[in-house]
Design goal:
Blueprint lengths: L12 H13 L4 H28 L18 H13 L2 H13 L11
Helix pairs in contact: 1-2, 2-3
Length: 114
């Protein structure tokens, strides 16, 4: 579908500089980069909504059995949700979450941890 509408957008100087550098690193114009970024974020948000619905509905327990209190660590929906959230999280947010896990006596996940 052709792009036909334009908008004016004000950004702080530091944000503009960062986005312009990210766009340049990808060989894109700033407007193209921002449009693609917004479209990608829309897709992520839609997927998060679908995952949230799946989590809210949860598995339907068989008659006479108790439902699990929390998702299994190998549940594909749970894992995908965690990976999507990690993908959109800023480094400060990831550090904050890791610090909170350590405070609770849990070891944070790391891509290098085995």
């Amino acid at each position: 579908m052709p792009v036909t509408q334009t908008i004016a957008l004000r950004l702080r100087s530091d944000v503009y500089t960062r986005y312009a550098a990210e766009a340049g690193a990808q060989g894109l114009g700033l407007a193209t980069y921002l449009r693609q970024r917004l479209e990608r974020e829309d897709g992520i948000l839609e997927e998060l909504v679908r995952l949230r619905r799946a989590i809210d509905q949860g598995p339907v327990p068989a008659p006479g059995t108790a439902a699990a209190a929390s998702p299994s660590s190998d549940d594909p929906v749970f894992l995908e949700l965690l990976l999507l959230l990690r993908g959109i999280a800023k480094p400060d947010g990831i550090r904050m979450a890791a610090g909170e896990l350590r405070r609770l006596g849990k070891e944070p996940w790391s891509p290098t941890a085995r």
